[in-house]
Amino acid sequence: MAWDFQTDPEIQAELDWIEQFVREEVEPLDHVLGSPWNIHDPLFKQLVKPLQAQVKARKLWACHLGPELGGAGYGQVRLALINEILGRSLFGPIVFGCQAPDSGNGEILAHYGTPAQKQRYLQPLLDGDIVSCFAMTEPQGGADPAVFTTEAVRDGDDWLLSGEKWFASNARYAAFYIVMAVTDKSVSVYEGMSMFIVAADAPGVSIIRNVGIADDPAATHAYLSFDKVRVPAGDMLGAPGQAFVVAQVRLGGGRVHHAMRVIGQAQKALDALCERSLSRSTQGSRLADKQMIQEKIADSWIELEQFRLLVMRTAWRIDQYQDYKRVRKDIAAVKSVMPKVLHDIAARALHVHGSLGVSEEMPFTGYIVRSFQMGLADGPTEVHKVTVAKQLLRDYQPCDELFPDYHRPTAAARAREKYAEVLASLDERHP
Ligand SMILES: Cc1cc2nc3c(=O)[nH]c(=O)nc-3n(C[C@H](O)[C@H](O)[C@H](O)COP(=O)(O)OP(=O)(O)OC[C@H]3O[C@@H](n4cnc5c(N)ncnc54)[C@H](O)[C@@H]3O)c2cc1C
């Protein structure tokens, strides 16, 4: 019987190293550098590159990848344990070579890329020499692909790509974009869109503006324009009309990886909540001694543990089945609950810190805004809840009777029929 919550000692030793390394070497970067994707910043080269070299030497680089692509091939459960530590720092993922959206873009290039595409784009991406961007959302809507209008039309051996994309993360630092475009208007978008690799410096590509989140000065989400950008036929990724098939390869794993990192962020908020409760006194006792504060602490821990178990089991199922379709409901559930867990724990931590908590001197408003990001990036929560419900409903049948099967009088009548003989003999003995 296998139902085990323990970590193997040799893996724990590795996790202990990662934990210390992230706390001592990586977390401080959050306070001195800008965007983790700005690999062109001279400070990045000085401060981040040496840390990446240490991670590579320890064979912990790009752990989300299989050995054939230079990763450790650890599988999702081990990755979850690593990612929840990396989630403590904005720079954690980039130092370990597993940052979104590059991790997902690498996965689809590995799955669908031609040898030439792999050599030109995948290898430097895996080596950490470039970063990339995934451009799917459009200004008129992201949750409903049916409204996408960016299109590519055939022109000799090339495609001419025109349209606009919105909230394309890290486009300003990226060497290439993976862009979804309509190539066949006669069918539904699910069959009529294709995926292209577009070099960031291709003529006709421009950034209309870079958009920041809340009061974050690093505006890293691009409003992009493509004006008859000439894309060679060899730069289509996958077959014509396959954009959604290709996209699913990156989105399934990507959503779970976000959730793994959110565990680390929520844990940081919980740590702050507990420490502050023990440190601050008011009206004659510590905050920690007041029951309404104890409730906040208990609820936060319970919610985080529930979430962590759901993430770990989902990771385990991905490893078991090696088929994201079979784990769709689990991934959608993880994606749906993730924003609420981070939001609620961060909000309690903020509140218990009083005025300090709401100030820019504390990280809590940032966590709360991030919780909303987690509820939007890779699709809004509502859409994922619909997936959970639809998948669940597949296991049920409607009841044709007027009263349902579990209606108590109906169930009692069935039980009386099942035990009729015994009940009759009892009636005879005890008339
Ligand atoms: C931090 C961040 C990074 C991102 N990075 C990228 C990126 O790199 N590349 C990229 O292509 N996109 C990216 N996005 C965009 C993201 O994919 C979209 O925000 C998302 O798909 C929602 O699209 P939208 O913003 O246009 O909202 P809309 O589609 O306009 O939806 C708005 C709201 O409507 C509601 N809603 C939508 N659909 C339903 C429904 N079926 N039922 C009920 N209510 C519904 C929800 O409340 C939703 O939040 C990013 C977003 C964020 C926040």
Explain this structure to me?
By secondary structure, the chain is α+β, with helices and mostly antiparallel strands. It folds into three domains: 9-99, Acyl-CoA dehydrogenase/oxidase, N-terminal domain (Butyryl-Coa Dehydrogenase, subunit A, domain 1), CATH 1.10.540; 132-237, Butyryl-CoA Dehydrogenase, subunit A, domain 2 (Beta Barrel), CATH 2.40.110; 245-393, Up-down Bundle (Butyryl-CoA Dehydrogenase, subunit A, domain 3), CATH 1.20.140. The protein contains 15 helices and ten strands. It has helices at 9-26, 42-57, 76-86, 92-95, 102-112, 115-126, 189-192, 243-279, 291-321, 328-352, 354-358, 364-374, 381-393, 408-418, 420-429, and strands at residues 132-135, 151-155, 158-169, 176-182, 193-199, 205-211, 221-232, 236-237, 281-282, 285-286. The strands form three sheets. A four-stranded mixed β-sheet has the order 1-4-5-8. β2 (151-155) and β3 (158-169) form a beta hairpin. α5 (102-112) packs antiparallel against α8, α8 (243-279) packs antiparallel against α9 (291-321) and α10 packs antiparallel against α12. The longest helix is centred in the middle third of the chain and has 37 residues, at 243-279. The chain is globular and about 95 Å long. 40% of the residues are buried. The structure holds flavin-adenine dinucleotide. Residues 101, 134-137, 141-144, 167-169, 221, 373, 376-380, 382-383 line the site of flavin-adenine dinucleotide (FAD). Flavin-adenine dinucleotide binds at residues 101, 134-137, 141-144, 167-169, 221, 373, 376-380, 382-383.
Describe the largest sheet.
4 strands, mixed
Count of the separate structural domains? 3
Query: Poorly predicted ranges (pLDDT <50, ≥5 residues)?
Result: none
CATH class call of the largest domain:
Mainly Alpha
- Identify the overall geometry: globular
Strand order of the largest sheet: 1-4-5-8
Please name the fourth-level CATH homologous superfamily of the largest domain. Butyryl-CoA Dehydrogenase, subunit A, domain 3
* CATH fold annotation of the largest domain: Butyryl-CoA Dehydrogenase, subunit A, domain 3
Query: Into which percent range does the helicity of residues fall?
Result: 40-55%
Record field, number of beta strands: 10
By DSSP (H or I, 4+ residues per run), the number of helices equals: 15
Structural class per helix/strand content? alpha+beta
Q: Which value, in Å, is the CA radius of gyration?
A: 26 Å
Ligands, deduplicated: flavin-adenine dinucleotide
Distance between the termini: 49 Å
CATH architecture designation of the largest domain: Up-down Bundle
**Could you report the average pLDDT, rounded to the nearest whole number?**
95
